[in-house]
């Protein structure tokens, strides 16, 4: 299984075998951390692996899982940093999936050091050998159909359709699936759906993190099909106030 295939087959794992992973596997994860693709180079994102082989899990929060390892995610306190953190974290999660390692985003949990090099801990990702099923069929995932996520201005090509299917599969907090797309033949305008009622800051920050996860799916799918893509922010759209969504970026595909 490669990373693109993992997009469609990964499942959240909440029960783990409390046993160590091979040292060479942990070394590979660390190298992946050090060479991760970034969404915005101006946003600082850092990770730390925390072992958990004691009697009590160090992860605390409403949503937690007792796992042999936790990946601690640190970032700056801005929407673009949250998106950058999600973008990087999902690459690591999918990489671990290809190595038959279970993972689970613990959005409200905290573990280990609260800060790292001046960055605050944002969330925790549990990982380790799964106790039970590691993968699922794509049909088992509860996701909105593309027709509910996309407004089509042009008929997209076959590769762009596949990229949008990969974006659709992105996990999100409370399965909120906040992404919306305006689709042209050579570009996609990405929006984050606005909530009807004001949201607590943490839920808003999680939605930006989720948007970063989804953008990583687009990037990985584009790489799978050898499509050149560029992510840009168009000021004429960024300055506008939209009734139902917030403009995030434009993804341009080059032949």
Q: What characterizes the major β-sheet?
A: 5 strands, antiparallel
Beta-strand proportion: 15-25%
Q: Which spans have pLDDT < 50 for at least 5 consecutive residues?
A: none
Kindly report the average pLDDT value.
94
Task: Estimate the global geometry from the Cα principal axes.
Answer: globular
Structural class: alpha+beta
Count of extended strands:
10
Number of helices: 7
- The end-to-end distance, rounded to whole angstroms, is 27 Å
Helix content: 25-40%
Rg result? 18 Å
In sequence order, what are the helices and strands, one letter per element? HHEEHEEEHEHEEHEHE
Describe, in plain words, how this protein is organized in 3D.
With 255 residues, the chain is α+β, with helices and mostly antiparallel strands. It contains 7 helices and 10 strands. The strands form 2 sheets. Strands 1, 2, 3, 4 and 5 form a 5-stranded antiparallel sheet that branches. The chain has a 5-stranded mixed sheet with strand order 6-7-8-10-9. Helix 1 crosses helix 3 (79-98) and helix 3 crosses helix 6. The longest helix has 24 residues, at 201-224. The mean pLDDT is 94.
């Amino acid at each position: 299984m490669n990373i693109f295939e993992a997009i469609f087959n990964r499942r959240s794992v909440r029960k783990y075998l409390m046993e160590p992973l091979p040292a060479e596997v942990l070394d590979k994860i660390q190298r992946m951390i050090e060479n991760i693709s970034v969404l915005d180079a101006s946003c600082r994102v850092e990770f730390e692996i925390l072992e958990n082989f004691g009697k009590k899990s160090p992860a605390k929060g409403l949503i937690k899982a007792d796992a042999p390892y936790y990946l601690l995610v640190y970032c700056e306190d801005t929407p673009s940093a949250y998106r950058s953190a999600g973008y990087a974290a999902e690459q690591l999660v999918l990489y671990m999936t290809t190595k038959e390692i279970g993972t689970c985003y613990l959005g409200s949990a905290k573990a280990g050091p609260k800060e790292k090099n001046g960055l605050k801990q944002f969330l925790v990702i549990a990982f380790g050998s799964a106790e039970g099923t590691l993968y699922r069929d794509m049909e088992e995932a509860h996701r909105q159909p593309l027709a509910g996520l996309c407004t089509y201005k042009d008929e997209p090509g076959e590769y762009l359709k596949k990229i949008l299917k990969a974006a659709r599969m992105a996990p999100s907090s409370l399965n909120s699936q906040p992404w919306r797309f305006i689709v042209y033949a050579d570009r996609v305008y990405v929006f984050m759906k606005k909530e009807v009622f004001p949201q607590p800051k943490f839920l808003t920050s999680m939605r930006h993190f989720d948007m970063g996860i989804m953008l990583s799916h687009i990037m990985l799918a584009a790489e799978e099909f050898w499509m050149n893509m560029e992510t840009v922010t168009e000021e004429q759209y960024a300055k506008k106030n939209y009734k139902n969504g917030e403009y995030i970026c434009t993804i341009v595909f080059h032949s």
